[in-house]
Design a protein that fits this description.
Layout (H helix, E strand, L loop, with lengths): L5 H15 L4 H13 L1 H24 L1 H6 L2 H24 L4 H10 L1 H13 L2 H10 L11 H33 L3 H24 L1
């Protein structure tokens, strides 16, 4: 496949699977949406995150990601914007915490917003910029053919694996939350999601 060896592709897939199951802002966002608003919202959030990944891959192919990572000022602006966005989501989740009626309303009324929020959460994560610049090129072999085509292939596999993992996790979290959908558990879940968002925002701000 584009001259890339089977061991190289196998090693790449193993690496990204391990990365995908490591908790981070994207995974927490998908899980939070699935738990608060249902399986559908979790899947839509995963699609938004995957779309953000596709943008990062395109930026690597075009060389834009390298420019951003090389600019301390621009990189810091993106980092602080991402941190602020996550903290705002956490505060909104805390203010919107409620019982089963609130969760049921969210399943229908807020699932559509999950895509955009997932996209923005991923795009404003500066660590994804550094990761894309540092990780993808490691598996490119200039002697194996077109470098751009290899980056597109590797990036496409990355997006596909992340989408698969996030959708599976979101589906599981959504089903579990549905079984615990009484007033007490709903309020606890909302608070946990809110705290998770704020903690991730603070962590991102701290660098």
């Amino acid at each position: 496949m584009l001259g890339l060896s089977v061991p190289t592709l196998a090693g790449y897939l193993a690496a990204i699977v391990l990365l995908m199951v490591t908790p981070g802002p994207d995974m927490m966002f998908v899980l939070a949406n699935a738990v608060r608003y249902g399986t559908r919202a979790g899947a839509v959030a995963a699609l938004g995150v995957a779309a953000g990944e596709a943008v990062h891959v395109a930026a690597v192919v075009c060389g834009l990601a390298a420019v951003i990572s090389a600019s301390p000022v621009l990189f810091t602006v993106i980092r602080w914007a991402g941190a602020a966005y996550l903290i705002v989501l956490g505060i909104r989740a805390l203010r919107g915490a409620g019982g089963p009626d609130a969760v049921a309303a969210g399943q229908d009324g807020r699932a559509g917003r999950a895509f955009l929020r997932g996209l923005v959460t991923n795009l404003l994560n500066p660590k994804m910029i550094l990761f894309s610049v540092a990780f993808l090129p490691q598996f490119v072999d200039p002697a194996a053919g077109d470098v751009t085509a290899q980056l597109v292939l590797l990036g496409g596999l990355f997006v596909a694996v992340q989408l698969t993992v996030d959708v599976a996790l979101g589906a599981g979290a959504g089903r579990l939350a549905a079984r615990l959908a009484d007033g007490r558990w709903s309020r606890r879940i909302n608070r946990i999601c809110a705290v998770a968002f704020v903690a991730l925002g603070l962590r991102l701000a701290a660098g």
